[in-house]
Model the fold of this input.
Amino acid sequence: MSSSDAPAQRRPFNLRVCAWFAFWMTVIVVWTENSTLVVNSTSFNSLAPSIALVFVLAVFTGAVNPLLRRLRPGWALDGREQILLYIMLSIGSPLSSIGLVHFLYSVVEAPFYHARPENKWDLFTSAYPNWFAIPDAIEARHFWEGSADGVPWRLWRTPLAMWSIFVLAFNFGLLSCVLLVHQQWIRSERLTFPLVYLPLELTAVEQGQAYSPIWRNQILWIGFSIAIVPHLFNGLHTYFPAVPLLPFKNELNLTRGMTEPWRQLGSMPLNFYPCIIAFAALLPLDVSLSVWFFFVVQCLLSLFGGITGLTAATSGGATAFPFAPEQSVGAWLGLVLVNLWFARHHLRAVLLGTGDAPATAEDIRLHRTALLAFACCLAVLVTWSCTAGMSPLVATVFFGLVFMLCLALARIRGEAGVGCISGPMMPQDLLLLTTGTRAYTLRDLTVMTTYRWFTVEFRGAPTVMGYQLEALKMADSVGASVRHVVAAVGVATVFTMVVASYVTLGVIYKHGGITLNTWRFSQVPTEGYNMLVSWIQTPRERDWLRIQAVLFGAAVLFGLTSLRMKVLWWPLHPIGYAVGFTKRTIPWIWFAFLLGWLLKAVVLKVGGHRWHQKLPVFCLGLILGDFFMAGLFGVVGALVPQAGYQAFP
Done:
């Protein structure tokens, strides 16, 4: 058939895709708020990609879309349209949860309800902007305790308008950063992007077929079957205690019951998360090895510090030897600097139109527009913060650090596929240890503390940049234009922000914030302000020891990068060090990474090339089975009025 006879491809971003996105995103929002907030069931954004996102993608590509092809062909989506739908849902998923609505509203309304004489929050409330939320004490009580009258939208008008400006500037600032580096990372360095394998395979529909051939692969269903068994038992155990519990997560701990000095190793749980094992097995061996290896190194350093007394001798600050948060943030900043240095020729070519291999006029125009857009977004964020009371210099430095750490996370996602890490030290803490609290006004400290809603958890707002980078990779793989991706990201951001805010505030006022998920509506909204009070009462000085730990982390990252480039047999990847010293979630996944690394090593050693070709399909089955059961019990959790089954922490 000649090219003129070939059926014309539809534009991948169109009204049909937007309509399906609006439907599925609304389902995800309502599902998330009721399942996660009300009954404390599965936390859908504990992992990236989001559990709800993968569940919806599997249902749509495996059942709904094939059925539409037979009954209503005009409503069905082709492969590229399904990728654009996935991109839009991936951008919206974190915004429907801890990336926006689960933290923002609880944090900004907390000072108007939780202030008590005993917690001394009155020390900063005079510097707290009233337009951050509703300052009225009675209305604050309705927010936290519930109200039969519903949401007072008239009173929320100003806070919602102001925070909408902030959120849009922040998210489009993230997108602008990604557009500056995406060609270097996608086409020049050819990062592996392990997290895009799943959506690309599920949406790879051949001509004349109703669904992807991956659904007919027996190896996929073997992995799927293995993954569903432990969740099936433990999920049923939650609702029917007579069903036996399988100890595959959080029940086993390598250091439980140990005596001194071995207790200094810290917590080393042996969790068997099938999806994490699968993601690790999709990585190059040096990356998966390095993630669990450097976590073990962190534990051994803690043991060394306990035995030698270094931990006790350095315990006067916020953290002690081996200063894991400080080393981690140094490594993340070092990772950004290293990759910007590697991309310097590319950036010079696309921004200045010079270099040995000058870029096309379209590339130059795209990157210059992205740079201008980033400058505008940063200016909006700084101006917004100054309106709230921050000084321009503090706001500029703060957001500079935020965007650098987000860029590091996007790089980690693109190269290592680790989408479930809480991140390194927060930028607020980095600023305070570097300069001390006396360098800032009360308003600086108050606004920075409020900004913890988007910096306290890197699986929240910062993870949006990782989704944006993966969106550009998927678009490049299926031949969609960058312009379509930008439009899709913009529509998804605005729509989700509006719908998620409407639904979440409705849930809050119906049930009362104090009855909702403890982490989101008790711990996060109060711990930052309690820390702010301690800074006011006992100012911190510059901490030279912890500054040295930050610099040491950057130096180790530089050293590992140099070794990896110059020594062919060097087995450790610098990203493993940056991930292995992160906080909170790395203990949950280290053992699964070890198993994933071991699985791939055995397959390569024993099965050779033939088995290695089948391994990705088996891993895809593990991921689908894991996420399907998490989503299934998420549905149950949204319907059954009791504490639900949490597939992941």
Notes: The longest helix spans residues 586-639. The chain has one domain: 22-639. Residues 353 and 507 are 52 Å apart (CA to CA). Confidence is low (pLDDT under 50) at residues 1-7.
